[in-house]
Amino acid sequence: KGELDENADEFINYIVDGTTRMQRMIEDLLEYSRVGTRGKPFEPTDLEAVLNQALTDLKIAIEQSDAVITHDSLPTIMADTTQMVQLFQNLISNAIKFRKKEEPPRIHISAEKKGNEWFFSVHDNGIGMAPEFFGHIFQLFQREHTENEYPGTGIGLAVCKRIVERRSGRIWVESVQGKGSIFYFTIPVRPGGIQ
User: Fold this and answer.
1) Count of H helices and E strands in the chain?
2) For the whole model, what pTM was predicted?
3) By CB atoms within 10 Å of each CB, which of 19, 46, 101, 170 scores lowest?
């Protein structure tokens, strides 16, 4: 770079940029595939501790965005602790990333036991999304916005879906453009002992 003409430098920049994006995509695909292949056995998992770890991991993004994150009391369930941290981290990270420019993110996490399932929600005051994206945002490489608008590979929510489904749960979203989103997921209650 810098030793050839301007056109060559421009092509080199395209190549470097493309290579960086490809590397990020490969790393994210590996993460996606490891949900099923490298998942740990389920064990009693304190979701309060899981959330605290996710918030620690996101400390810089939280501080830079002035995000305020609140939560209800969270249960202890049988799950893969590492994957539950990843699940909360991905959902909170998205809520921070897709925020409105004019106000800091407000994110609330709740949990409620209904029948034989725990219902969890991650509610934000972000930019929201159009209804036509609800069905496919949990698929690989599906994005509503371009990479230039909001960086990322479009794999994070697909990872969330795999984590929830590994625990025999469901995940979905409700959203209104300009008013925020609520991501819901369920975890079935296990009979006897830890839920």
Assistant:
1) 5, 7
2) 0.76
3) 101
